[in-house]
């Protein structure tokens, strides 16, 4: 287990950033035959992405809630995210097809969702925690004197000030 960093830390990232939430809702807990395959498909996809440094996946964090897991992923671009999702040779396409087949057999047993955010600026702080989240996906740096408050970090762009295609 990673040890907490007792310093006040933030993240640093230059370039595009996409935050992607993907998860499942388990609606019929008594039917693991219907929801377990969906849950079990994700580790293989994450391992596949981790093996490919050009995949565009910067990092991720898994959260487990009352209705099921949510995975927060950080990507270099929507193009790379969509390229992986649509790649017929990658694990995502067969997993998605298998989910759809199971869903037709038992409508409503398990749900899936995703949300995609293209981020222009991001602000973060981590105190007494291991490096995690956006700092783990990008770069963890100490909070400086000109970035002591959240509004300073966000306004000054000291964390994840991203350039746009049409300029800074």
From TrEMBL:
Top-level taxon of the source organism: Bacteria
Positions of region (Disordered): 142-168
Pfam annotation, one family: Monooxy_af470-like
Protein name listed in UniProt: DUF4188 domain-containing protein
